[in-house]
Design a protein that fits this description.
The structure is a single chain. By secondary structure, the chain is an alpha+beta fold. It has two domains: 133 residues, Roll (Diaminopimelate Epimerase, Chain A, domain 1), CATH 3.10.310; 132 residues, Roll (Diaminopimelate Epimerase, Chain A, domain 1), CATH 3.10.310. Helix content is 16%, strand content 44%. The protein has an 18-stranded mixed beta sheet that branches. The N and C termini lie close together (9 Å). 45% of the residues are buried.
Length: 279
Amino acid sequence: MHFVKMQGCGNDYVYLDGFRDKLPADLPALARRVSDRHFGIGSDGLIAVLPPSVPGADARMRMWNADGSESEMCGNGLRCVGKLLYESGLARREDLRVETGAGILRLHLTVEGGRVPRVRIDMGMPRFRPEEVPVDLPGEEAIDVPLAVGDAGFRMSCLSMGNPHAVIQVEGVEAFPVARQGPRIENHPLFPRRTNVEFVEVRSRHELRLRTWERGAGETMACGTGACAAAVAGIRRGLVESPVTVRVNGGDLTIRWTPGGSVTKEGPAVTVFEGTLTD
């Protein structure tokens, strides 16, 4: 079976073409196998690009984290889906609609010489109601609320970008113990479906530095929905203004949001290599 390894700001996935190939039945097990960075291909997870199941979409994206758990969507992964659809000839248009677990999202491709170096995505409306995140907290929203984790205390803002996020503002994010606190917050009992965790430092009115602990994958080089969540939370709290450059471990993403509107995210999409999976 043919595969393509792609990355967006270092957030890397193995991609399978479900239009042309018959995919294995146990995709969670395959995700664990290919994601292993010592005995597999090495990735943050597996993404299958499939024919759409609803009218009006060009394709459907399903993704599994490195631990085999399925996630609603991935913003960095979705940019690469757009690149794959165009460059493989499955959809030769600059504007695409892709079905995800978070609904149908619109992509605009930057095409240069028949290749797609960058993609802008309309990520849809952020959701703040606790039951939509989901997070087990009262009220209409959970913005800048206290969180106790063992003997540590944080202030967090919770929202959904189609998947759950807890945004934690910290000082000195480069030295912050993400590997210790990330899994504690991911698996905190407040989050019935676990959560992605964004540790963010405000650098200026238009710049954030972000490190993300991704649900089911650990700390990654980038998280597209996490960058959106961090920027939205910062704008919502009056800490930054749109557009926001979010500096992740693997590069920069540009996030735009006006309260009451959709979030847009723009960044690179890169093919790393192609190969063949065998039993």
